[in-house]
Specification:
Blueprint lengths: L2 H24 L10 E6 L8 E2 L6 E2 L1 H13 L2 E6 L5 H6 L5 E2 L13 E9 L1 E6 L16 E5 L4 H12 L9 E5 L2 H9 L5 E5 L3 H7 L4 E3 L7 E8 L3 H17 L1 H8 L6 E7 L4
Parallel strand pairs: 1-4, 1-5, 8-9, 8-10
Antiparallel strand pairs: 2-3, 5-12, 6-12, 6-13, 7-10, 7-11
Helix pairs in contact: 2-7, 2-8
Amino acid sequence: MNVSLRFRQFAALVTGTMALHMPLAHAGTPPSIGKSTLVAAIVPNYPPFEYKDPATDKLMGFDVDLGEAIAAKLGVKLQWEETGFDQMMSALTTHRVDVILSGMTDLPSRREAVNFLDYVTGGPQFYTVKARVGEFASMDALCGKTVGASRRTSWPDDIATWSNEHCVKAGKKPVNVSGTNGSADARVQLRQGRIDAAVQGGETLPYQNSVEENAYAPIGKPFLSQYNGIGMAKGNAALNAGLTEALNQLIADGTYQKILVKWGLQEHAVQKALIDASN
């Protein structure tokens, strides 16, 4: 075998070895999002997803920890931008923020403006104060009752749809839907007896009971299956790809699961990053 042939074989071996290992070398680094700081809109009033520590005024919650972990994977700084829930979508579409990370439900109607990177499962849950749970042996007992839910969400409409299907069509009185100024307001009205029951994400009730001495009891099961998603601007392929890959890496290396367990949300895990997965 001549020297030239030996060299060509050696070069082919080296090239093949490099090709074999190149994907592994890049596996730990998501694609660049083209910026050094990620600005995320948040409304810190929905524990355990996001809230402020009363003692320190520090942002806390599952979304906060997940956002920090995603930013670390991307190698960027994370800047939280407190934004009114009603302004979040416009803040994203006008590029005042890069993402929405604030327990937002992935709804088809919202996808006209943004893409959703779905990261936990959930769904609206009827509940009442524990002292009145005996009045609601089944979800049908809600017919004719007053039920409150945040008017800034889809839940008032979801309750009305449920009422039409399960109450009106059965010849029963419809649910009286009461829009509230957020889920915290619904709980206040429930404790004051101004409403009979309320709706919020079923995934949040265990945490709420942990801080309010088991004050609430679910009525039936969540009546819809939905996802919470990270809102991402349309037309920014680099950012969408980077966030998706970063979440998949957090799922693969166990960080995602650890954050879920920390906040008691392990039953709401996704197996991989999903885009616009809700019906």
